[in-house]
Amino acid sequence: MGVTTRIKICCISSIEEARLAVACGAAAIGLVSAMPSGPGVIDETRIAAIAAVVPPAVGTFLLTAGQEPEAVIDQQRRCGCNTLQLVDTFPIDGYSVLRKALPGVRIVQVIHVTGGEAVDEARRVAPYVDGLLLDSGNPRLAVKELGGTGRTHNWAISRAIVESVRKPVFLAGGLNAENVGSALKQVMPFGVDVCSGVRTNGELDPDKLQRFVALVTGRTAAPA
To answer: 119-175: per-residue pLDDT in tens?
Structure first.
């Protein structure tokens, strides 16, 4: 008891959205760079502008589909985010290259929970990163799904991952005010990550956001 579940609001598209997310209690925001599919993509110039005005204590997660360490390093330097969220598979020896080039930048690896093999993948990767994020994409499709699907996945597998690794684990994938309470009970993650569940017509919705945060933190939502 007493442990605060971290909240990450993803697909942030503007400085105004970033400020709204932080004001409502987000511990981190997600900034989506070029992807093969999915919502929320913004250009790197806008990512850098948003990251530059977010308070230092708030995580600015650069979502990157890059799989080449040097390309990811260059991208982080252009964008200035304090955390890399690697949404596709990444070479094990590449993590040390990132560490050496980007001291102080946190590394979070996404594990797409498509089946029980995700537990083994999480165990394999966890020693090399600062955290894991469990999502509902499918990198094996012809056009890769690397996040933003709006789908939930098998939370029993996610719970097994949380119990199997010694690193913080964020839960993503189809979360909203209706299911986040159940997700927290079943998975017991370090944090939760939400995109479409707090949006209306693609825009960050203050009422949905406040309700979601209140359910996660146990606080009473501010009146509409």
So the answer is: 999 999 999 999 999 998 777 778 877 777 778 899 999 999 999 999 999 999 999
Query: Is domain 24-216 in CATH 3.20.20.70, yes or no?
Result: yes
**Cross-strand pairs, 179:** none
**All residues at 6 or more sequence positions from 186 whose CB lies less than 8 Å from its CB, including other chains:** 155, 156, 158, 159
The pTM score is 0.93
C-alpha to C-alpha distance for 94 and 220, rounded to whole angstroms: 44
Strand partners, 135: 112
> Which residues, in sequence order, are bridge partners of residue 9?
29, 194
Report residue 166 as tokens.
């010694």
Q: Would you tell me the crossing angle of helices 155-164 and 180-187 to the nearest 10 degrees?
A: 40
Q: Which residue, chain included where needed, has tokens 């209706």?
A: 178
